[in-house]
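Response to reviewer comment R2.3. The reviewers asked that we include at least one raw input/output pair. We reproduce the pair for C-type cytochrome here without editing.
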Amino acid sequence: MTIRRGWLGIEAVLIGLVACSKTPDAPPAPAGSPRFELAFSDPVKHGERLSKVLGCSGCHETGLTGQDWSDDMGTLWTANLTQSAAKYSQGELAAMITAGKRADRALIDMPSYLFSGLNPADVDAMVAYLKALKPEGPVHPEPSMGPELLAMQAKGEWMDSPARVAAMKDKGPPDLGTDHAYGRFIVRATCVECHGIDLTGGKEPMEADGNAPPNLRIVGSYRPEDFATLMRTGKAAGEREVGLMSKVARRRYANFTDGEVGAVRAYLVELSAHDP
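Raw output as returned:
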């Protein structure tokens, strides 16, 4: 269950309410965990690219100054990341991204479970990028969960970010062996949020006028050039717009390297053949 409205992508939602740990340590990445490719040698530029690939602006607006997602679930602003980066240490920011918590609070709807396996060097680059930003705009209100959301939490129907990290830490898309481990890693950090941990898609549209996310085994029918075009331009074969995916591709996946696009496609094609 997610309380977000529309697609939020993956982004560091530095908000929280529920008391959590006093030491907001990021969980250690698995030994030898892969990294996103270094398209830039400058860590700040590498971090900026990752912030786009992982979708920070989806929740926090283009300038990362936050926005209001409040509704009947509560007062739910996403944080102004330019202000948060100036306030918190590198370690604290890393914990928010990968563990979904800060020293005093659990984050509410930060999808840290997607990022819990990121290589620490990639997380450090993202933090370096955030800390390079000039603080702009206001600091937004702390979140306040409404009665409905509190009741859902009490029933176990909704989890805050650290609880979801704990529940999902050992789960991932189907393991297709070492040859496809890199593609699986990228898919785990990106595609899973919309298409589910097993990549079978969703039952409900993520936009009011859209379609439900499809089963990603459909990629097995894509020619390599068509898949690359979709990732780069948001256009499927025949110059078709494909709803939310077209927007996500242009905003996020156009920033993939060629190697990352190839690894994702190879993994999904093997998935379609191995587990149709």
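Confidence is low (pLDDT under 50) at residues 1-24. The domain at 178-274 is CATH 1.10.760.10 (Cytochrome Bc1 Complex; Chain D, domain 2). Further pairs are available on request from the corresponding author.
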